[in-house]
Amino acid sequence: MYTLLDAFMPKTFTEISEWIAANISKHAGIDPSEAALDTDIVDFRLDSLILVNITTELEEYIGMELSPSIFWEMRTIAATSQWIAENQEI
């Protein structure tokens, strides 16, 4: 039987980082070009509820469960994206 899980394709570092940057910039009210991958996520001045909401949406996008504190643990968009890219189920 074919399920939606069968259709899941792992996302690349670039796809993940672009998605995160777009969503952080949307919530921070900045241009996506200002969401540099190596900027500390706390510098975007988003509250914890917004980051948890972004994490929930990111889980849906990549198809895997994440720690609600992943952005605080990884600190940057690049580190978060790299961790996800390396830990996706194939």
From TrEMBL:
Domain of life of the source: Bacteria
Protein name: Phosphopantetheine binding protein
PROSITE patterns recorded: CARRIER (PS50075)
Domain Carrier: 14-88
Coiled-coil region: none
Name of one Pfam family that matches: PP-binding
